[in-house]
Amino acid sequence: MLCSSGTSGGEPKIMPSIAEDLERRTFVYNLTMPIMNQYVPDLDEGKAMYLFFVKAEMSTPCGLPARTVLTSYYKSKHFKCRTHDPWNDFTSPDQTILCNDSNQSMHCQLLAGLVHRRQVLRLGAVFASAFLRAISFLERNWRQLCEDIRSGKLSSFITDPSCRSCMSTVLSTPDPCLADEITRICSQNSWKGILCQLWPKAKYIEAVVTGSMAQYVPALKHYSDGKLPLVCTMYASSECYFGVNLKPLCDPADVAFTLLPNMGYFEFLPLGHNGTLLMDFDEGDVPNDKLVDLVHVKLGCFYEPVVTTFAGLYRYRVGDVLQVVGFHNNAPQVRFICRRNVVISVDTEKTNEEDLHRSVTMAKKLLEPYDGLLVEYTSYPDTSSVPGHYVLYWEILYCGIKTEAENENAVVVDGSVLEECCIAVEEQLDYVYRRCRSHDKSVGPLEIRVVEPGTFDSLMDLFISQGASINQYKTPRCIKSKKALKLLNSKVTASFFSPRDPKWVPKMC
Predict the structure, then answer these.
(1) Residue limits of the GH3 C-terminal domain (predicted)?
(2) In the chain, what are the domain boundaries?
């Protein structure tokens, strides 16, 4: 059984998988390299430092393993028993990829990548956020990694027997010269362009940089000094693999995927330009008479894909918003626009407006004993640091007696109350968000920034000055405008973070 990431409904979904599914996924993986070879030559003359990770699997009540789609692939014979391929020669030993402890896995994979730094021709991870987490890990731990290289001995905190066994071959002899080189590079005040310095022969970075991952493009360009193209090779989900990018060196904003009709049976639900439904029916329904076949989609139009898979999913709504931007022969080429109804996202979690509103509604009750009233709020995914985190801007009105502190635009309630508001919001967010916060550590503590009175009136004035209708204006629940963010941040009077991780318990199938 496959266990989805849970980005559609807030909880992982369990779905059937068959042996032929792995063969189809392997087919797509194998197809990406011939495409890359058309644009980047001689990739068989070096190694790829790709950072891959598995998630601990669950079991169904009758004992069937339930794995994420990538873990399923990495643990299959298609990956573990693959023949040597010079075009896919990874720096990471398989045992380090299959290690369930993400910190030990990260340490060993980065260590292997540094040892082979002069042979690495390409860098990458599945998601842009995961690759930036690796850079953050490197920033914190490069001294220990250098010590491992200098001594030729693996750090004692690596306790996984398989990791220690395979890394003994990678660290066959002490290499103080290599350790000195890496120390010199990592000791610089600025890490701008650090990737090109550590891996001087690297030709590109491969990762998903579409949709919510597009927010990480500036950071990737910073660490590569804009010298390494950002490559997004395929469009895939737990339910089905959809297509490949035939122009992998294009700008991330222009990435389009050519659909592969042998992956499943594809139909499309017409959408408006903002991802809304064009007809009135329940969200869970699939109006059969409104679906458009693969060959009948229209250029420029927006659709939600509906798939029927070989493993048994029938007319399954994927939840993505796609725009048709061209055709390759008769196969549509689509651009991934966003997830339907998603307001804010940092990593693999996707929070929609309804969940965000419900969470804030519960949290704001903590202000009532202090005569505090939440006037308005909005959000922003702050990815300026790794891991990224949610930021909520709150404008609070105090209905009781005004204090001197309040007149100075200070926060009236004790800071601990607003910290509790932060954790109250997080406790109400969905299963995937809480897993990313508490277990994966891929999302940082939520932050509430309290803004001075009148801030959201100023925000409305800004949007109206830019052409918004005063009659139809609604406060955006997620801010994307740089000018709007600048305005909000100029009005912040205090900032508070969640004091602890939200509760999360792994769910059994």
Answers:
(1) 354-482
(2) 2-240, 252-339, 343-497
